[in-house]
Write a structure and sequence with these properties.
Elements lengths: L5 H16 L5 H17 L4 H22 L2 H38 L17 H16 L9 H9 L1 H4 L7 H8 L7 H34 L6 H32 L17 H7 L2 H12 L9 H19 L3 H19 L20 H22 L3 H11 L13 H14 L12 H18 L12
């Protein structure tokens, strides 16, 4: 079920009403209802994938108890069995064909012929997200951060809670499970915050991202015959398309969860106002970045065991992050580019200069230095997006080569910046907090803004265009 579909507009109020005023007698019943509603939400695409989701949930639930109960010398064995299970699921559905085809290509280059069997399997929606939920749960039990959950319903709801099930944020058991195990009461203020976030997220997705997508798709489809100046405009528009698409999803997810008394982790903090690549990755897809930091980078030794290992570990997490996004060389190159961009900051120990601060902290506008930092970071990120958006490496390289052709001709599609400029202004105004949207104090201005966003979104609503991160 898509957030930006009419069926979701029917599903949500029904589930909301039943959750608070019918199945709220006990926490156990309320959680069971939320779990069944989440399975309905997920199964709306293809009910057959529900079996895989439930099986994955059962296995990690089991391994959580095994890691907790066995003798210390056996804990690591069960931890790695859990990891292997999750990687096996990902490997079969997401990476098997990639590795088989690459093996065939390599063997063919040395004169060996190999006719592999390729799997004709659809990629289950959200598989990369719910497998990471399961792995973090077992990892945290292994690290003695908390005890395994006795109630299977509570654990299954942690994995499958419908606002985050398909595209995150990637939650931590230590953050979400205590909320699911605590009696919740309806709070009007929290629900109102949720509705505002949902409305803003819907507007970003349906109005901005989907409008930009039409232009971006045509630009990449015809990149060989398009002027370089228009190609440059196209990739800048894609930067804002993917931001509005994914951050719009995250806003809707956070807002929907608030309606049910749940606070999810933040996933975006205005990343295009970052002053360097390190800050960008603390603000873009935060739940994934922090997941790789906590469960891969730090266990590998982080940056505390010399520069050589710090460089190695940096490349590992960025390359793995790229591969997480898709079984294709262009995603791996995208991750590698960010590793190279991050490296100078790491070596100069400047990668944590902008921690805990916001650009133009106590000022209305940035100074000249901050403006240059923000623009240069955005330019580097936008260049890397070419490899993310292109379907193959050859297309990405062709697109980059094409930017130099007829560059000084008049670019097309500049009118699309009418969507972008207001977004930048609003985000700049909101940049201190991504969770609570500031609204005008004047009642008439506030409701005028609400009605305008609602009407424009409804006018564009119903296209049922998928979110970009659903493919991951």
């Amino acid at each position: 079920m898509l957030f930006n579909s009419f069926i979701f507009l029917v599903f949500l109020p029904i589930v909301f009403a039943l959750y608070w005023w019918v199945f709220n007698k006990t926490l156990r019943i309320q959680n069971l209802f939320a779990l069944l509603a989440s399975y309905l939400f997920y199964g709306w695409w293809d009910w057959r994938f529900l079996g895989l989701l439930i099986l994955s949930t059962l296995i990690d639930y089991y391994f959580g108890f095994k890691v907790y109960n066995v003798a210390d010398h056996k804990k690591k064995l069960y931890l790695w069995l859990s990891v292997a299970n999750n990687l096996l699921v990902l490997g079969i559905f997401k990476y098997y064909n990639f590795f088989i085809v690459e093996t065939q290509t390599f063997l063919g280059s040395v004169g060996l012929h190999f006719s592999p069997y390729l799997l004709k399997l659809a990629l289950p929606v959200g598989i990369s997200f719910y497998t990471f939920h399961g792995m973090s749960y077992v990892f945290d039990i292994y690290r003695n951060k908390f005890d395994p959950v006795k109630s299977f319903v509570d654990y299954a709801l942690f994995v499958s809670f419908f606002p985050l099930l398909v595209a995150g944020p990637i939650e931590r058991a230590s953050h979400l499970l205590p909320q699911l195990q605590t009696k919740r009461t309806f709070r009007y203020g929290q629900a109102l915050e949720g509705l505002r976030l949902m409305l803003w997220g819907m507007f970003k997705k349906v109005v901005i991202a989907d409008s930009l997508a039409q232009v971006v798709d045509k630009t990449f489809e015809h990149y060989q015959t398009t002027a370089g100046s228009t190609l440059l405009v196209g990739i800048v528009l894609f930067s804002f398309q993917i931001y509005c698409d994914f951050s719009g999803y995250s806003d809707i997810a956070l807002g929907t969860a608030k309606l049910f008394g749940i606070e999810l982790l933040s996933n975006f903090r205005f990343p295009y106002f970052s002053r360097d690549i390190a800050e960008f990755w603390r603000r873009w897809h935060i739940s994934l970045s922090s997941w790789f930091r906590d469960y891969l980078y730090i266990p590998l030794g982080g940056s505390k065991n010399g520069k050589a290992k710090a460089i190695r570990n940096t490349f590992i997490i960025f390359l793995v992050s790229g591969f997480w996004h898709g079984a294709s060389w262009n995603f791996i190159f995208w991750g590698g580019i960010h590793a190279l961009l991050f490296l100078p900051l790491l070596l100069s120990r400047a990668n944590r200069v902008h921690v805990g601060t916001v650009v133009a902290e106590n000022r209305t506008l940035p100074n000249f230095k901050e403006l240059l930092q923000v623009l240069s970071t955005f330019a580097l990120v936008t260049f890397a997006w070419i490899f993310f958006r292109a379907k193959t490496l050859s297309i990405a390289i062709g697109y980059i080569s094409g930017i130099g052709k007829h560059f000084f001709s008049k670019p097309a599609n500049l009118v699309m910046f009418l969507y972008v400029v207001p977004l930048i202004i609003v985000d700049w105004y909101l940049r201190h907090s991504e969770r609570v949207l500031k609204v005008p104090k004047n009642k008439w201005l506030r409701y005028s803004a609400y009605y305008t966003l609602v009407l424009v979104t409804l006018y564009k609503f119903g296209g049922n265009s998928s979110f970009i991160y659903f493919q991951f």
